[in-house]
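One such shown below:
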Amino acid sequence: GEGADAPKSMLVGCLQRTGPVLGRVGRASSRIAAPRSTAHWKQPANCALAWSQTLVALGSPIVSRRRSTMSAQAAGDAASTAADAKPAVPEVPSGVEAEAAALAAFAEVPTLGKVVARAVGPARAQGAPRDLWLTVNTATRNLPANTQRKASVSALLPAGSTQVLGASVPTEAPADTSLLAPAPSGRQQLAFKSGAEGCSMSLCMWNESRLLFELQVPKGLHGALVNDGYFAAGAAWSPGEDAVAYTAEVPPGEKTPVWCGQESLKDAAGAKGWRGVGTANEDWGELNTGKRLPAVYVLDAVTRTVIKATASLPAEVSFGQPAWCPGGSGLVVVGWQQYNPGSAYAKRLGVVFCYNRACALYYIPLARSGPGGALVAGEPVAITDLGSSAVSPTFNPSGTTLAYISHHTALKTGTHSATATLNTLPWPKAAAGGVAPRVAVDIPAGHPTPGSFPGLYTTSIPDDGFLSDTVLLLNAQWRSTTSVLAVDVATGSVSPVTPVDSASDPLAANGGSGMCGSYSLSAVAGGRVVGTRVAMDAVPQVVVADLPADPQDLVRQGAQPLAWSAVAGLGSSAPLAVADALANLEVVVQSVTPTIGNTGHTFQSTVLMPRKREGPLPALIMPHGGPHTAITAGWYPAYAFLASLGYAVICPNYRGSTGFSQESLASLPGKCGSHDVQDCMDALGAAVAAGWVDSGRVGV
């Protein structure tokens, strides 16, 4: 699914949608049950039975190799008999209960969200790193409730150390709190909470340990908070910390008059009337179905009021991603057009993973009506082309440059995702509009070699990305990993500051023989950079590295990655059974030569499998969706779980995947169903040729 909440069991959820349609590649299986109705597959017992039958048909190591006392023939006969007899109580092969417990154990491993870092105390020497106070947000799957348990933990990380001190007890996030937005200084925090009756939310402003004020926001002012990571990610504090900009749904339109009676009968008998919902709302579909358009609002902490900053802009445009201008003189926001200019489709198409939607930057002046007066929004100005693409506006420290990400190639070609560019505008000159942007990082020509920059594959600029006026850190995909890149916005040079292959990853699992992990920047403070690392064979980690005194060293020719270390005592932890299972996993990233089309465009396929194995394994091919996305090094509990059972899990990044080159990505449109499918089969062939996979026992 597209949302954060996956089905209670990924395996059962898959079967609920498709039924047991998995078969063997190479020879069909007659033991898979016939298609059933939707109601049939909503019964967990039926799904469990179908899954067990599928495992038998695939020659599952669960049934035939590891714990079952039945022979392969007996297991097959039992499955066939169970399918034909349709017993009232489904029979489950021996060992499945233990496997369910293993799946639950993998679900206990927390994922890491945003890491907030604040420098505390003086530096021990001039220019030396400082102590950091870290707060890590985590999420853990609650299987019985089919929800996420969100919590946070804080600790002190002394300078020169990778061991935290005084870690707090994890604090579970209140169920009525949708967002906690700490101020950059750490002295204030705004909590977005559930509102009282008739209100969309409650805004609670805290100063250290004291509640300064609480405001109830009526539904007539705006609707629910928008914090989906696309239209908005968190809230933006003004430089003076006297105002907070955030994104919320616009209020619903007026309802129709009362029909067929009276709305309130009071003390007289009569017919009870009713109202229609009003004007139809064309939403963005997908995850935004039923939601109203987003707009930008500002909480004025001085007058304790809320204003709609985008009130003077067209109502049919969706607004979000607010960024404060230098000195708090206004906001730069992103506006998504109702439909792409010049398009034949005058409809609001989806936006989830669709970066080919026209969007522009708008400047909204903001000033107080007088000393201690209310904030007043001035006349907005469009500062980029309405028919192009501009997201994630971010100012450099001096406020002289406005940087943003452009997905103009996706917009131009129509592909839902493509290689991006990093653009800049001079400030405040660009505030008047009509200034052409400069492309700081362009799209590389041709098909870059594996060790060279493949192009920019990112959707946003981190909050703490600028290290200086010219050096910017970005999280971006680099082939089959996510890396932190240092960019010189003046020259366009790009250098990875995190490892891009397993040989250079100091945190690779199993003594350095594991896969190269994906790194993401979370925060920069006190001369140190804090991030997270994820991989298929290791639980998520908090990582830290010291920054050079001169950030320009990161983008000089021949620059090497930073020296990263895991922060002990603050990352994810795993049950003993999961830790033992991960220690027995092997991950190999294969370079595969395709057999059709341009065979010069090699692609990568990641294979996750048991380290201790006897002969070729049954395999599951996991093609990614999109099609223009990728499976990068990451923490995938379902994949690790399946590999721990004895499967080889094959994850092909077929041609057309992001992270390799625009030329490779553009080779897929018009060939979907042929090149991508054949590339998956070529990835399977490469795993078979390596001796890892039995070609007769493969599922998709």
